[in-house]
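Two proteins were folded this term; both appear here.
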Amino acid sequence: MRLKALTATAAVVALGAATWFATAGGPAAELIGKARGERGIEAQREAGGEREANDPDAFERSGATQVIAPRAMRAPLAPLPSGFDSERVWGTGDDWEPMVAADPTTAANVYQMTTRYTAKACGTRKHCIMFRSSADGGTTWSADIQMCAACKSISAQNDPEMKVASDGTIYATWMNDWSVVFSKSADKGKTWSAPVDLKKLVGKSFTDKPIIAISPTGQDVYVAFNSSDSYVAYSHDKGATWKMSPKINSGTLYYFAEGGAVAPNGTVYFAESAEAQAETGPINLTVQSSSNGGVSWMNTVVDVSQQQPPCTLSGCGGDFYGAQINLAIDKAGTILVTYAKSTVSGGPMTLYSRTSTNGTTWSAPVALPTGATTVGADFPVVTAGPTAGDFRVAWMDDRNGATAWNTWFSKTTNTGGTWSTPVRLSDLGSGAAYKTANGFTFPYGDYMGMSTNSAGTNFIVWPEGASYAGPGGTWFTKG
């Protein structure tokens, strides 16, 4: 999610395709901005309540249904190499921006979350986060569970993130309206602790786009988020009590956390992009680090991308294709970042990787084997494999055409020196109205998820859709 904010008593500010209003005396009157990637929270704030600028439920109310072909009717375009399964879809809900987390100590347990825009499933909420679990390595799945269904006065949920500790405890963070919250489950997702509202710790009117990182045992928990500026909430008792970092960045850029991990020596790192409030101009691709448990932080610019390609679809924000950066840390403590970068303002983006042992000095960039027509490659995720030097990256790109996106996978066994030939994971040429033999129409949401277990199995989820307004679905594979 990308929200722009400023303080005002009454204002109308037009940013990109969406316009936000604030009226003196109305709820959250100081919140004026545009949310990148969260259709249901792109709202016009007015006295007396909230209404949606882009009306994400119009598809639901129209009486139409999303048509997903039965699995037996779908056939992969070609056998997938490297042992990946053919892609599958999570039900028939209008789902986007999913997340996945694998248990690090067993090949059996894996968990998924997705943001669902289906009113019948979400009750009084405009959209909600659904969770499900698998006890057989992702072959079969439990029934869907709505996260925090008993939470009162919540109109919408967004941005799910998960990590699993060595004892099997699931740590999760997401947004209840504009509050970043934390919860955990000790019984494989059957029940969850009462959400902790991390927004209260920072004392801001909104918090946005959380990313979670944990130590292997879950003793140390870090949640990075923004309130335009960058912050991290941290706990050293498995989420029982929390403290808040000071503002990490200087200047006036708008920060978005996109990846995080804790190194073997306990140092925590987050990868964040930072753009101008007006969504124009260069984007700093940064890594933030703390070696004292979150008390103080360093903010290092790893690279700079020129302005992102435009998104011309109705309702799509000006920074939807904004350059992103993600990171993982291997068993030896080497940090690898992968990021999307454009060298020409508005031009297509390429993925690069760089490595570091301390988060401040970095190797020369290495280009990954991506492809491009209009936008290029974006939304990268990266994980570390079971051995030193082993990293895996997944992303989406439009090499097959501007409306023929696909999800791809590549790996390195020499710490990013070279990368394998990409594997196309979105291998079905049918199964939904937005799919053809060349790919899917649009990346439905601005991020995807990947998790790798101790056996080296990769679990990957991503969103495919018809347009920015949907409908779409969460698709996944393993291999």
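Next, the second protein.
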Amino acid sequence: MSDILYFKLFANCIPVRGESESVIMDLQRGEYFPIPNKLMDVLELTQGNLSVQEIKNYFDNEYDQGIEAYFSLFEENEYGFYTDEPELFPEISTEFEFPSRIISSVICLDQTTKFNIHKVLCQLENWGCQTIQIRILDTFSIRALNKALQDISESDIKIIELFIPDKLATNEELIDLMHTSLRVSIVVYSSAFNKKIRIKRHKDRYVSFIRESIGKETKELYAKHLMYCNVKFYSESVNFNAGLNRKISIDESGQISNYIRHKDKFGNIENINIDQLIHDERFTHKWLINNDKIEKCRICQYRYMCNSNSDIKKEGGKYYKVDDCGFEPATNRWN
């Protein structure tokens, strides 16, 4: 056994540098914690397979006690370990392998909607869509929606999230919608109160009522507690724009976009099928613009955990997000 020791973070613990603060993402435990950038300097040297002593020498032995204290803390909390064979512990693969050509979809419906929701849902099912969010903007036939959901009740779609305005459906109709599939969840918005109604026979399922209004232009929320920290999301974020990758949005008139609030439209779902879209580079282009390529995002320590659906603009050869998240990496503050 060699006398030379190295320190390694476990492969599932990913250090990410930010402009004024860094984080370690624990992809296995689904959590992250902040670290100072000076410690990030040290961890980057461990990734370069420098021994503990070589790292200390690099800093002219100025931070020996601090380095040892952090390494001991990481070892105690099972974030890392000492070894004399660092080559035996490769980094985690960041290859994103997912069979679905469409991962998620947002659909808006109202009294003017003419496209066949049943046909749209079936197309999404055929292309392996995993998550569907349906927003009813004012009125829409609950019976037609129920029928469309029943027709895909045996599909591989994992989540069907319904946003329904208050008083559009009775409690019995809401419960009937929930019974079409265990994957259906319902949020009733613009309610006079915030509460949950438990579904009989399913003790862990509820219809949620919220006071907030939900519409086509509703902006998403950004906060520390809304970050995603897991292997799948990390590998997708490294390779793609996780908020837009393989997403299709359809507004109440059938107009197709990358996300429901984006201005660019790519035709109408009544005369364009999803197969055409996923082979159209104009539509899929933004899937590939990940946060490492976007100004401000590329210096943010949360860039591999953020699920922003913001549109992207290009100015002066650089990419920018249209919607501001309210976080400033340069000052490490939320506005």
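The longest helix spans residues 64-76. The chain has a mean pLDDT of 94. These notes refer to the second protein only.
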